[in-house]
Design goal:
Elements: H1 2-10, H2 14-27, H3 32-47, H4 54-57, H5 71-92, H6 97-124, H7 130-153, H8 158-191
Helix pairs in contact: 1-2, 1-8, 2-3, 5-6, 5-8, 6-7, 7-8
Bound molecules: fe (ii) ion (2 copies).
């Protein structure tokens, strides 16, 4: 219930968030996070200032620092970030559910192809952390598919599902690309193993 309240707060549905937070506090009067967010709701209603919404509303920005140094991977990452922003904007602008589902399926397919290609390149270069990469990729796909089917069945509230999709895409994809995938780039540079056709 608290997570749903949080999602509603971030989506600026403050009255719904307040109701849920009050229920949390009714069940557990010592629920400090619920109290904290309830106060944020009140301040938002009084002042119009929405605290803490920056990170969730922000677009994913592609920049040079995210480059791995392998042409195919970097091009696919750039496309992935682009489509992730298309999805974020579809959610932010509260587009029709069919449209959101279409973007989610497209992104899902794109991500799967990207993971397959990336793993293939890592295998070619005997990257020692390939199994860790595969594990992370599989987890992402599993979680993404779960959210995708929940979106179809609408078991959870739409606002909460949207919030989870955004967290998954923003947090996971950006972090994975920045940390794990760039590690592969460093490995290639250190080993001086970049095949000439892959160098940008
Ligand atoms: Fe990647
Ligand atoms: Fe990866």
């Amino acid at each position: 219930m608290f997570e749903e309240a949080l999602a509603n707060y971030h989506l600026k549905r403050v009255d719904k968030a307040q109701n849920l937070l009050q229920k949390c506090l009714h069940d557990n009067p010592k629920d400090a996070p619920a109290q904290f967010y309830l106060e944020r709701c009140k301040r938002y209603l009084d002042s119009g200032v929405h605290e803490g919404s920056g990170e969730i509303d922000a677009n994913i920005v592609w920049d040079e620092s995210l480059k791995v140094g392998v042409k195919e991977i970097d091009e696919q990452h750039e496309e992935l970030f682009k489509y992730s922003n298309v999805l974020m904007n579809a959610i932010k602008e509260r587009r029709d559910q069919n449209e959101v589902e279409k973007v989610v399926s497209f992104l899902n397919e794109y991500v799967e192809n990207h993971f397959r290609d990336e793993e293939e390149i890592m295998r070619e270069h005997d990257y020692p952390f390939l199994s860790f990469q595969k594990e992370q990729h599989e987890n992402f796909i599993k979680y993404f598919k779960k959210v995708q089917s929940e979106l179809k069945e609408m078991k959870e509230s739409r606002a909460y599902l949207m919030f989870r999709i955004r967290l998954l895409v923003v947090d996971w994809l950006v972090n994975h690309t920045y940390k794990e995938d760039r590690h592969f780039g460093r490995f290639l540079r250190d080993k001086d193993k970049v095949a000439p056709e892959h160098i940008i």
